[in-house]
Each structure stands twice: as structure tokens, then as C-alpha cells.
Design a protein that fits this description.
Shape: globular
Radius of gyration: 21 Å
Oligomer: single chain
Number of strands: 7
Largest sheet: 7 strands, mixed
Strand content: 15-25%
CATH superfamily of the largest domain: Beta Polymerase, domain 2
Order of helices and strands: HHEHEHHEEEEEHHHHH
Length: 297
């Protein structure tokens, strides 16, 4: 028995908006306080994750906030020729203030503003909920440039992203603004059907976990969103039921090594990578979707 359209309709609804907006504004105001020790530095504050992309569901609790140091940037020159790399090095000057100093100051300031329960996680700083404020994760990072050209004359070309280091020393490079823009473009190309169907998939993930088809960590929201982003716009139909079925069939027939993250600058599926989904979890998620579809009652 397939999952009824009424269930998909319920799953498509967006979660908390006003409380998440209040949480973001409260933390953003604290980070922009002129008394903050990093106030003299140039930085950008923006949302990422489900709330930032309007794909949050009622089960989501965290608001994901990014604070990105922009007065210092880090670079990837692997895409440049030898002569371009030499030219880049001749123009480069070392920074006196970098990611580690910035993160230490942000962490200390958030503890000063929100109390000792603020904790440093492997990737982000966690601020627990309080009253009308939801749980929040603050990702401290620095600007990153992935260079594609560095000509003798004219402006260099690069993809602007973010970089941060985990507490165990791993460097993570990502492109959250491209992810957000590409998901919004996909939403428009699908007659506004992309984001509600992401919410459907996230609720299906919850049902699969509760039934033991997958474990809670095998299908993170970021990768579910990226997975659906690869499905052609023609597969998104007015019926949620038909769209989900079309998507599952398409994903079962595609070459998973050709799927890209929604930022279109990383592969979605690669084993042994901290920024990609491993193939085994991708296959288990696909199998879980089929099993949920066929066993629904």
C-alpha cells in the first residue's frame, strides 16, 4: 500500500518560523554588538541549514547561524597553472589575525552574552534554548576562495565559500550561499515544488528512523536536500505522491557518482570525505524510502 497524498500534504508543511526568526535576530544582535572583542574586524552573519532555506519541519529544533570572518581569507589554488600560482604567491600577504583567534573571541563573547551553558562542539558553538529562543548552532568560519583564474592583467576568478577547522583539526570547505541560491533556483524551476518536497523527504526520514529502516545519522538533512536537488524538474508534479515516486525511481536509475551537492561545487557522494555522503548510507536511504512506501498502512 502506498503512502496517501493526505500524509504527504501533512509532511510538506513548514515548521516554526516566528520563533526561529526571533532566535536568529537575538543572536545576530549579540554578534554585532560594538562591545564584542571582534567588532573591529570585517565579518558577515547569515543563515544556513533548513531554516535559512525554508525547508525546516516541526521536528527541527536548531537554528543554524554562520559568522564568517571576511577581513582574512584562505585560498585553494589547485585549479591554477604553475605560472598563475607563482603570480598569486607574489601578491599574497600573511594575515595577522585568522580563524583561530576569531573563533576564540566569538566563543568567549557568546558565553558572556548567553551564559556558561554555551558549548563548543566539533564544528559549531551550541547555544541552548531559553524562553522563546530556540536551540542555535553558530558556525564560526573564515572566507575561502577557490581560484579558477589568476591572470597577469584583470581580476582573478574564484568561487567564494567558507572554511573552518573542526576541534580535531580537520579543514572543512563549503559553499553555503551557492547552496541557498541553487535551491531557490530549483524551487522556481519546479513551480515552487522543490522545498515542500524536501520537507516531505525529511519527515519520511523520521518515519524510516522510527521503524528501524535507517539509523538517525545515515540521512542528514543537507544530503537529503542535495539528493532531491539532482532530480530533474520534470519529475516534480502537482501530486506529492507522484513526485516522491518519480524521485525514488529516478534516483534508483541514476549514476550516484555523478550527483552533485546543491552548491554544485562538491560531489554529493564520495567515500572517505568529510563533506560528502558515503555510498553505503545513500543506498540504505534509497532502500528505506522504498520500504517505507511499500509497507505503509
Amino acid at each position: 500500500m502506498s503512502i496517501p497524498e493526505s500524509q504527504f500534504e501533512t509532511w510538506s508543511h513548514q515548521g516554526s518560523i516566528s520563533q526561529s526568526a526571533t532566535t536568529y535576530e537575538t543572536i545576530r544582535s549579540a554578534l554585532k554588538d560594538p562591545k564584542a572583542p571582534f567588532a573591529s574586524k570585517n565579518f558577515d552573519i547569515f543563515l544556513q541549514g533548513s531554516y535559512g532555506n525554508s525547508t525546516n519541519i516541526y521536528a527541527d529544533s536548531d537554528v543554524d547561524i554562520v559568522i564568517c570572518l571576511s577581513s582574512t581569507y584562505y585560498s585553494d589554488t589547485d585549479g591554477l597553472s604553475a605560472s598563475e600560482k607563482a603570480l598569486f604567491e607574489s601578491h599574497r600577504s600573511p594575515a595577522s589575525y585568522g580563524f583561530q583567534e576569531f573563533k576564540s573571541e566569538v566563543l568567549a563573547w557568546l558565553r558572556f552574552k548567553f551564559g556558561s551553558t554555551v558549548s563548543e562542539g566539533k564544528k559549531a558553538i551550541a547555544i541552548p534554548s531559553n524562553g522563546s529562543r530556540r536551540d542555535a548552532d553558530v558556525l564560526v568560519c573564515a572566507e575561502h576562495h577557490r581560484y579558477t583564474k589568476f591572470p597577469t592583467h584583470g581580476a582573478p576568478s574564484f568561487h567564494k565559500g567558507i572554511v573552518f577547522w573542526t576541534t580535531d583539526g580537520k579543514m572543512i570547505i563549503n559553499f553555503p550561499k551557492q547552496h541557498l541560491a541553487n535551491c531557490s533556483a530549483k524551487h522556481q524551476a519546479c513551480s515552487l515544488r522543490f522545498k515542500p518536497n524536501v520537507r516531505v523527504l525529511k519527515n519520511m526520514r523520521g518515519a524510516m528512523v522510527s521503524k528501524g529502516f535507517i539509523s538517525s545519522g545515515e540521512a542528514p538533512s543537507y544530503f537529503l536536500e542535495g539528493m532531491l536537488w539532482n532530480v530533474p524538474a520534470s519529475q516534480f508534479q502537482p501530486s506529492y505522491q507522484q513526485t516522491v515516486l518519480n524521485s525514488i525511481v529516478w534516483l534508483n536509475e541514476c549514476d550516484p557518482t555523478k550527483l552533485a551537492c546543491a552548491n554544485d561545487l562538491h560531489w554529493l557522494i564520495r567515500d572517505g570525505s568529510d563533506i560528502c555522503w558515503n555510498l553505503a548510507d545513500f543506498k540504505k536511504t534509497k532502500a528505506g524510502l522504498w520500504k517505507l512506501w511499500e509497507s505503509w498502512s
